[in-house]
Specification:
Helix content: 25-40%
Strand order of the largest sheet: 2-3-4-1-5-7-6
Oligomer: single chain
Largest sheet: 7 strands, mixed
CATH architecture: 3-Layer(aba) Sandwich
Shape: globular
Strand content: 15-25%
Number of strands: 7
């Protein structure tokens, strides 16, 4: 049995609850429901919980530091549980992937994502697994305003299908590993099901 810290990135507070930037929180909430893990304990500048799911021991974390300081929550949690960046799975929103699609990425840079930038600064490495949740890019206008805006009226009804699909992705990832999960899920449109 392996151990993983899974962190969903987002911003705390009701005004950010349904924004695109909180896609990581939305997926983590759905995962917590499916795994029956309460993510309510205050620690590491975030909300956390632990339990077993898919035969693995999981620590779930929702940093409450605001996106730009996510690393200040994730890094202390990783150290406390005596885990390494190789044991870390980060779920975050991604502008460069269309809404409803997902991409698993091992390592790499931050690509301008402030949550990833903070993580890399605090961890001293980018060698962790990312689950990139597509939110699409606005055709025009300010990307910052876009990510901090709510999902559109067309997108919002599809979110449960997307978050359920991502829980399926995470289940497969824990059971079968990264290569098989990448082959089945990368660039799949979760709004259509698998």
């Amino acid at each position: 049995m392996s151990v993983h810290l899974i962190a969903g990135l987002g911003n705390p507070g009701p005004e950010y609850h349904e924004t695109r930037h909180n896609a990581g929180f939305m997926v983590l909430d759905r995962l917590a429901d499916q795994a029956n893990i309460a993510v309510t304990r205050k620690a590491f500048g975030g909300l956390c919980g632990e339990g077993r799911w898919q035969g693995e021991r999981l620590f779930l974390l929702k940093p409450q530091t605001f996106m730009n300081l996510s690393g200040r929550s994730v890094a202390p949690a990783l150290r406390y549980y005596k885990l390494t960046p190789a044991d870390l799975i980060i779920i975050h929103d991604e502008l460069d992937i269309p809404f409803g699609q997902v991409k698993i990425k091992e390592g790499g840079g931050h690509g301008g994502h402030n949550g990833l930038r903070s993580l890399m600064e605090e961890l001293g490495t980018g060698d962790f697994l990312r689950i990139r949740v597509g939110i699409g890019r606005p055709p025009k206008g300010d990307p910052v305003k876009y990510v901090l805006g709510n999902f559109s009226k067309d997108e919002a009804p599809l979110l449960p299908r997307v978050t359920d699909g991502l829980c399926g992705l995470l289940a497969l990832l824990l059971r079968e590993g990264v290569p098989k999960t990448m082959s089945l899920y990368n660039r799949k449109d979760l709004t259509q099901g698998l």
